[in-house]
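Work Package 3 (structural annotation) set out to generate three-dimensional models for the target panel prioritized at the project kickoff. During this period the team completed the workflow that converts sequence records into discrete structure tokens, so that structures can be stored uniformly alongside our sequence database. As a representative example, we reproduce one entry of 141 residues exactly as it appears in the project archive.
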Amino acid sequence: MAMKPKPGALTEKVAQLRAQGLAALGRGDVPAALASLKIVTALTPSDGGAQRGYAAALIRTNKHKEGVAILKKLVETEPNDIELHCVIAELLTTMLDHMTAKQHLERCLALDPKGTNPHGVRARILIRRMQNQLEAQLGKK
């Protein structure tokens, strides 16, 4: 006869895996972070911190598309998170998806119209960098 887990045992195990995964990410042990956080994100899709950690681990293993996809889902539930928009935009810029990156940067500017938030400032820098790159490319033709 199989034993039933104690009430809360799964929740405690998930919490342990989450802590282990985020700690592993913090110390640069990306494989361990991926292993733990993949399970946590599957069991608790509403855990934004675990989702961010898992996305970061994926990005550190050059799985940018998968990491950005997770962050895009997260931004749907957190539309006013300026840091999240800025991170997504920067990643999309490196992936050469400038149009989508621009949408996220514009959201950053809307959330921080006076440029008082560090991520709002970063968004302005990224927009200017994109403009400079475009001007440089147009100048070469």
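The radius of gyration is 19 Å.
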